[in-house]
Design a protein that fits this description.
The chain is α/β, with parallel strands linked by helices and about 180 residues long. The strands form two sheets. Strands 5-4-3-6-7-8 form a six-stranded mixed sheet, with helices on both faces. Strands 1-2-10-9 form a four-stranded antiparallel sheet. Helix 1 packs across helix 2. The structure holds inosinic acid and magnesium ion. The site of magnesium ion has 5 residues, from strand 6.
Length: about 180
Amino acid sequence: MERIKIHDKFFKIFIPHEKIIEAVSKVADRLNRDLKGVDTPVFLSVLSGSFMFTADLLQKIEFQCDVTFIKLASYNGTESTGEVKQIMGLSKSIKGKTVVIVEDIVDTGGTIVELDKLLRAQGAADIKVCTLLFKPGSYDKNVKIDYAAMEIPNDFIVGYGLDYDQLGRQYKDIYVLDPQQ
Ligand code: IMP
Ligand code: MG
């Protein structure tokens, strides 16, 4: 589909599925290389947006690893509220572990900063950030973004797990807000 309507807005195709999978494979290759010798890293998937990325990424991981989830929310419609809410907390101890945060998108970085604080407080030995998408033009924090599968401009996108007001997560491609509404 070239153009979709979600709620009141039109979105146009931006990143087709094949390109997404290509980028996910490249990031998986880097993780397989970098974390090979590490004792059972924990992939921490940040719900809800990263569920598709997590599924595709983890299928390509070749070392033994643990997977766990946390649910956060910071967006209201197409704008970041700047406040990150924890809706479902960590259910597993990450003390002494290498934790790979799996995010759908790093935008202002508010979510990553909060997660970094939380994981440090809980005694993580090492924290890596792995995101499908990165908006460098919007990011103004100091936490290192270790793995970014793709960099994009500051536009609002949906699909492949990402939502606009809870809709649009099911699309296999990524769409961007169409300037022609
Ligand atoms: P940050 O805290 O500003 O970095 O934003 C992080 C969260 O906001 C992401 O994990 C997404 O869930 C959501 N978000 C940021 N940009 C977009 C977007 O363009 N579309 C949909 N959700 C987004
Ligand atoms: Mg997210």
